[in-house]
Amino acid sequence: MNMKEFNHLSNRRNFLKIAGLGAAALGLQQIGCKRGKKQESDIEGLADVADVKLSGKPWVPVSDKKLRVGLVGYGVCKFSAAFGFQNHPNVEVVAVSDLIPERCAELAKVVKCNKTYPSLEELVKDKTIDAVMISTDAPSHTKHCIEALKYGKHVAVNVPAIFGSIEEADMLFEAVKKSGLMYMMFETSCFHEDLYGMKKIYNAGGLGKLVYSEGEYYHYMSTPIDSFKGWRIGLPPQFYPTHSNAYYIGVTDGSFTEVSCLGIPSIIDHLKPENNRYKNPFGTEIALFRTNEGGMSRMAVSWDSPGDSGEKGRIRGQKGSYYGQYQGLEKELPDITRPALPPGVKAGGHGGSHGLLMDEFVSAVLQDRKPLVDIAIALNMTVPGVVAHQSAMKNGEWLKIPQYTL
């Protein structure tokens, strides 16, 4: 497609939506962060969701204390500011950091914070900071989390927990346990309306053991999204598995025990092995997992199949199923409405999950309780993808998956 054709299509976007075709049908729509230099309002995953169903009950603070937070990372997705820490009544943003001075200055302005640091390594030395939100490049998540824990900071971090390395997972697991500090991975699917409902019904016994579950993360990238040192170029799909794996792990807090995964060689240039640092040939990887309950999960991640996009899933249990709504044997269901938010905090993007994830982390620290996605759950969501990619590179060989339990 030449530039003239592209501009013509862009000008017709509203017409296409009305006609029911939508930008996704043309391969233009993307979930998460769009490629190229886009305004924040153009980044689909970050756009505030207008119609979010939350509890009608008022939000009640769990403490009168203030959590002093440092925000790190203001790249293409601007994630460290996107979750609304700066608007929470129990939070004081005391410092911010980004490696690029202009981005650091913009972050400070957006969250109204006067103290800046040139790097995470400098910020975590600040003794006035209680907790750090880490929104740096995915390959650095493990290193940065361990560094923050070393200096006594509670850690919130974007997905994935680790990047392609089981050794990293073991190191991070031990660091969190040794520290005694709070760790929470901000998996957006966990506060989607459907997954939250699945979890509440599962915990109430309305689904029984899960026989089968499906999770999907479809995100067409004919050109990779901008990323620090190009880490997204040729990214193996199952290195970024949490948006799909959450549709079992995030429902049950369980785990996958073994996997067989298949991939198909991609026709997209950056997803050819000679064109990326990972020697990855696949743009789509479909994994079949055995669950710790004895059931099965089919989890798909795809970068190279234009069309329907997003984070979604379905589950079937011995007592009921959830395909957009509950269908099953249980007649008295729990309230599945997502919690209320503090005044001034927006639900935000990714299905209205941003504000809820942030409030969950803040509340968990202040109450000294288990957070929604603790270190064991985070690794049980992430590590299976690493093993799944290994299986795909071995033409679907069944492989065992390490287990993480607190």
CATH-defined superfamily of the domain at 190-330 and 376-400: Dihydrodipicolinate Reductase, domain 2
What is the straight-line distance between the termini?
Answer: 52 Å
Content of β-strand: 15-25%
| Low-confidence regions | 1-32, 34-44
The first-level CATH class name of the domain at 190-330 and 376-400: Alpha Beta
Biggest sheet, strands in spatial order? Answer: 13-12-11-7-10-9-8-14
Q: How much helix, percentage-wise, in residues? A: 25-40%
Structural class: alpha/beta
Looking at the overall shape, the CATH architecture of the domain at 190-330 and 376-400 is 2-Layer Sandwich
Query: How confident overall, as mean pLDDT?
Result: 90
By DSSP, the count of extended strands is 14
Which term fits the overall shape?
globular
Main β-sheet: number of strands, strand sense, barrel status? 8 strands, mixed
CATH topology label of the domain at 190-330 and 376-400? Dihydrodipicolinate Reductase, domain 2
Radius of gyration, in Å, reads 21 Å
Order of helices and strands: HHEHEHEHEHEHEHEHEEEEEEHHE
Number of helices: 11
Descriptive notes:
- The longest helix has 19 residues, at 375-393.
- Helix 6 (141-150) runs parallel beside helix 7, helix 8 (193-203) packs parallel to helix 9 and helix 9 crosses helix 11 (375-393).
- This protein is α/β, with parallel strands linked by helices and 406 residues long.
- Mean pLDDT is 90; it is low at 1-32 and 34-44.
- The protein has a domain at 190-330 and 376-400: 2-Layer Sandwich (Dihydrodipicolinate Reductase, domain 2).
- The protein contains 11 helices and 14 strands.
- The strands form 2 sheets. An 8-stranded mixed sheet has the order 13-12-11-7-10-9-8-14, with helices on one face. The chain has a 6-stranded parallel sheet with strand order 3-2-1-4-5-6, with helices on both faces.
- It has helices at residues 3-11, 13-18, 79-82, 101-111, 120-123, 141-150, 166-179, 193-203, 242-252, 354-367, 375-393, and strands at 67-72, 91-97, 116-117, 131-134, 154-158, 183-186, 210-218, 256-265, 282-291, 296-302, 310-317, 320-322, 326-328, 399-400.
- The chain is globular.
